[in-house]
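Notes taken during the Thursday session

The instructor put the following on the board and asked us to keep it in front of us for the whole hour. The protein is CIDE-N domain-containing protein. We were told not to look anything up and to reason only from what is written here. First, the residues (414 in total):
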Amino acid sequence: MHLFKVWDQTRTKKGLILIKEPGNVYVDLILKASQKLEINGATVVLESDGTPVEEEEILIAVKHETLILLEPGQVWLSSQSQCEISESSSGPNNHSFMSLTSTETIASTKSNECISGATEFLNNDSSSLDSTIQASNCNLEFSWTNFVIPWEKIPQDMLQCCAQGKRDKYAITEIVHIVVNEMKQISESIPSKAFKIVSFKMVDKYPATFRDYDDDGVVLGDGTASLKTKLQERYHYLKRPHKRPVSTSPETPLHLAKIKKNATAGCAQWAPPYQKAGAAAKNKLNTFLDDASDEFFHLLEETFAEQRAFINNVDPPSITNIKDQWPVLFKVEAIKWHFNKVTNGNISNLTTNLQLKAEKIVNFGLQHKIIISKDVRRDSAEIIALEVFARYFQENIYGAFYLKFQVYNVFVSD
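Then, after some discussion, the predicted structure tokens were revealed:
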């Protein structure tokens, strides 16, 4: 849970915004702050000096600072210049700053002086304003926070299903098609974060319809990740050429792309934005003795992006490499924390869930000839279920999973 102090550009509208996790803190802040301040927020900057805040991790790190939410086209102005502009807008006719700079005859000498002073300030500070404008332009994708889901274009029977919390695959597919078509009307080039923002809006409107369940009705997630994938897949499908080119050279070989897709399944935080924590934090964490203290978990959080970048390398590190570079990852508490962080789940529920699903997983393995009947009689259903997973994803359960936990004397209960 995070509390932010947010003002508008004029510093006249102010509010405290409470954001709860899990979710995208950056997107949620822009949406809720826009609603509270009654503006169309697009970018966030520091009130003190106008430094753009463009990433979720940075936003959380500066949450104790006062933030300004800028609308599209707005730039940060210091409180001094804002005061000068406010003074220039006062007078018997209550003209605004823009109206004072128009071709109208201005009678007030004082107002002219205020405008001149504000203009001089803007000229003197042009370099900082240019950098702020440039940063804002780089972050224009967040203007998608103003995108309105075209619910009025969706057939009434489908909207009724959504209102009743029903999950109809045909209806969801049709809604995805309509939404993507509407997004393409705004721009043919849609950034990835736009789909994330739109998926949050759709789930917020009809959470029960877009929530992810398994076959037994167990909730797997709020649905934003899977809905974002559906939106992106539809968008990329519409961008495909009608004919396959004579020769193609994909950036990632097909077999590697499949391996990555399997490895990232269910991992909400597989590859967070890279941020180097520094050698001091890494060394302290790897030599930390008290693995149950708040500082230990703080160091894990601080170095998490660097851990994932190391593990996700194009040439994956061996167990020996991991032990040399990140020995802390073989501590029980670190393993549990890392699993929970990557999956947004809870490893404590793993044993129970595996016991509940083991029989179904084993039957799946038999039907698809991943295992044979004599394998089932050899061991417990839970162990056989793990073997089904390993063979399906072409992993060696005893050469990888077992080795990691036994060779380095790491044991996890259950």
